[in-house]
Specification:
about 35% helix; 2 helices
């Protein structure tokens, strides 16, 4: 804090966060896709499990796709 030794690195991190539209912490990304707001652990696990299965058939499908991650609607019994 007393020196500017890491100022350039911090500036790069801030610029990257702005480019990715990261405006809060934590902000989570799964396969390059930003997750909406806060995600409960069961939902996050569901997203990750879905991505693992999806990636088996679609190599690198999450990279730079501009996609939005959405949770499936719960089914009513």
């Amino acid at each position: 804090m007393d020196t500017r030794a890491t100022e350039a690195e911090v500036d790069r991190s801030v610029a990257e966060a702005r480019e990715l539209k990261v405006n809060s912490t934590p902000t989570l990304f799964v396969n390059g896709r930003k997750l909406p707001a806060q995600v409960a652990w069961p939902d996050l696990r569901q997203i990750i499990d879905h991505e693992i299965e999806y990636q088996k058939t679609a190599k690198n499908a999450g990279e730079d796709c501009g996609c939005e991650v959405k949770l499936p609607s719960p089914t009513l019994n």
